[in-house]
Write a structure and sequence with these properties.
Length: 204
């Protein structure tokens, strides 16, 4: 997976490649799909949701440019896989999921995989997690019509937000920097994610 799906494409950050190699993806997919855990694809995890494609998780992490000392917010816990990769790259990871059952399952899986330090919260992640802000980096694993204002506001100065932005069926993965003069979109690549439901997303 690391060599063929990540390095051979354009993932170059050795810390990200190392993290992707260490997290056991098979623990984060449903039992009956374990033989497909390292497929180059998103896979269903129940409740109409998916574990993201490995390349997209790596792409998001590379854009966040983490060095190991940061406090990070992961919006859309899903299986918990993205949160585990972030935990390999940063000091403190908060992850928020709107579906209680998914959040509970992800908490259990993260514990089993050795990532019990990840704090999994239940709620509308499009509003961020103000009680734990500011964050050096925020990763959003679901698509919004525009970068959610609350998430930009919860970034520290110089902080990075990676979020899929666009229509329900096609988006661009945007890297937004919070600068003194305001937020700036510095890069974007095409992508396709499930919709971010909620106030800062496509609505309830
Ligand atoms: N990164 C996850 C993983 O590795 O398994 C996959 C994320 S999945 C593609 C998107 C997740 O975002 C779903 O679990 C969905 O329930 C969640 N979601 C959608 N809208 C949300 C919101 N407003 N707040 C929190 N989670 C949300």
């Amino acid at each position: 997976m690391v060599e063929r799906q990540l390095r051979a494409r354009d993932i170059a950050d050795e810390r990200v490649l190392g993290a992707m190699g260490r997290v056991p993806r098979e623990l984060f997919v449903p039992q009956e799909l374990r033989h497909r855990a390292y497929d180059d694809a998103a896979l269903p995890i129940g409740d109409g949701q998916t574990i993201s494609q490995p390349y997209m998780v790596a792409r998001i992490c590379e854009e966040l440019a983490l060095r190991g000392c940061e406090r990070v917010l992961d919006v859309g816990t899903g299986s918990g896989y993205g949160a585990a990769v972030l935990a390999e790259l940063a000091a403190e990871v908060h992850s928020i999921e709107r579906v209680t059952e998914l959040a509970e399952r992800a908490r259990t899986t993260l514990g089993r995989a050795g990532y019990e330090g990840v704090e999994v919260h239940v709620g509308d992640g499009s509003l961020g997690l103000p009680e734990h802000a500011p964050f050096a980096a925020i990763a959003v694993g679901a698509a919004a019509p525009s970068a959610p204002v609350a998430l930009v506001e919860q970034l520290e100065l110089g902080g990075r937000l990676v979020v899929p932005v666009g229509r329900r069926k096609a988006q661009r993965l945007e890297l937004v920097l919070r600068l003194a003069e305001g937020p700036a979109v510095v890069r974007s690549v095409p992508c396709r994610f499930v919709p971010l439901v909620g106030e800062g997303g496509f609505g309830p």
